[in-house]
Amino acid sequence: MENKSITILGIESSCDDTSASIIQDGYILSNIIANQDVHQKYGGVVPELASRAHQQNIIPVVDKAIKDAGIKKEDIDAVAFTRGPGLLGSLLVGVSFAKSFALAQNIPIIEVNHMQGHILAHFIKEKTNENHSPDFPFLCLTVSGGHTQIVKVNDYLSFELLGETIDDAAGEAFDKSAKILGLPYPGGPLIDKYAKEGNKTAFTFGKPKVKELDFSFSGLKTSILYTIQKQQKLNPKFIEENLNDLCASIQHSIVTILIEKIVKASEQTGISQIAIAGGVSANSSLRNSLKELENTHSLKTYIPPFSYCTDNAGMIAITGHFKYLKKEFCHQGVTPKSRMAI
After folding, report:
1. Do 114 and 151 sit in the same domain of this protein?
2. Are residues 300 and 193 in the same domain?
3. Claim to verify: residue 71 and residue 104 sit in the same structural domain
4. What is the pLDDT of residues 57-106, one digit of tens each?
5. Is 211 left (phi over 0), alpha (psi -120 to 50) or beta?
6. pLDDT of amino acid 34
7. Does a structural domain hold residue 72?
8. Average pLDDT rounded to a whole number, residues 228-252
9. CATH code at 156?
10. Do residues 36 and 175 both lie within one domain?
């Protein structure tokens, strides 16, 4: 008798993107994401508005994911969902939907740590593309709006935190710097865009001194603010006239901090396989700098496709796939958690 395929529905609702994905035997069949534009005029994510938008989006997004995958809801073996970390109101929508759907279909539910999902996005297989994923153990630099971590990945479900930010995350540093420059939210991608035309050594900012493999970005952010305020007193058009150079210098400062730490982690652990994950892994300078380590430090690097960098349910579904194989299910009494250790 032929073995039945394992079909997982993934639900991601940790911040402001509502996403649903179907993964079958490790291969992605659909990955639907509904973005929320409502936050742009506020210059950041408004939790109350985010949870309301999730409520509007969740059913249409799941429906489309199932239809695009070419399956029926009866084919789904389990529902994997983001339990945390994230915005409590947003998580609540995804968790509640996952529990209700699973209850109606009489199938198990699987809780997923959002940051572990980002790491395991490297193992999503596509039928149309050649699939490259790291061997164990490998180091993963996870960089997003809320997190900056170096994680040693021993197995699909075995993670060891080696270092993390003691204050702001790298993504937050990008977005706050963009706000100082008067760029609209989300500002990180705009800094990346303007930096391409700028001189990365035009401006120098204060560099944090943090022990071991931890990070700090609050001091850098303050240095950027003070530099700009000082120059604006001398020239009110300073930002306008130096925008590309400022973006390039800010980006170079942040990326240099990240790369130096991951190199240090590789030297300390003797692990030569390095991956990046999370929203900031879409940044072109970080991607290029990581790739350069193959030549400068003889490291093997892994960079996820753009579609798996930002929050998406594909990464939740693939984590659910590996947990399903180990029968790591959770109970219907599960509740979301705004903070979760990796």
Report:
1. no
2. yes
3. yes
4. 999 999 999 999 999 999 999 999 999 999 999 999 999 999 999 999 99
5. beta
6. 83
7. yes
8. 97
9. 3.30.420.40
10. no
- 7 C-beta neighbours (distance < 10 Å), count: 23
Helices (H) and strands (E) in the chain, counts: 9, 10
**Contact residues for 336 (Cβ-Cβ < 8 A; gap 6+):** 83, 84, 86, 88, 91, 92, 94, 95
Q: How is residue 310 written in tokens? A: 């930002």
Nearest to 121 by CA among 342, 280, 277: 277
User: Which residues on adjacent β-strands are paired with residue 32?
Assistant: 20
Q: 155 and 271 share a domain?
A: yes
Count of alpha carbons within 13 angstroms of residue 264, beta-carbon side: 15
The amino acid at 287: R
Decide if 167 is inside a domain: yes
Does residue 299 lie within any of the structural domains? yes
Asked whether residue 324 carries a pLDDT value surpassing 90, the answer given is: yes
Q: What's the domain count of the chain? A: 2
175: Cα within 13 Å, side-chain hemisphere: 17
Sequence letter at residue 78: A
How far apart are alpha carbons 286 and 241 in whole angstroms? 25
Are 239 and 204 contained in the same domain?
Answer: yes
Q: Are the C-beta atoms of residues 15 and 51 closer than 8 Å to each other? A: no
* 49-63, 65-79, 171-185, 270-284: least confidently modelled range: 49-63
Following DSSP, what letter does each residue of 227-286 receive, concatenated? HHHHHHHH-TTHHHHHHHHHHHHHHHHHHHHHHHHHHHHHHHH---EEEEESGGGG-HHH
Same domain, 150 and 265: yes
In which domain, by residue range, is 273 found?
A: 138-304
Average pLDDT, the chain: 92
Helices in the chain by DSSP H: which ranges? 47-69, 88-105, 114-120, 170-180, 188-195, 218-234, 238-269, 284-296, 313-325
> Are residues 243 and 190 part of one domain?
yes
pLDDT at 122 over 60: yes
- Hey, is 205 helix, strand or coil? coil
- Dist CA 260 CA 239 (whole Å): 28
End-to-end CA distance of the chain: 39
Residue 2 maps to a domain: no
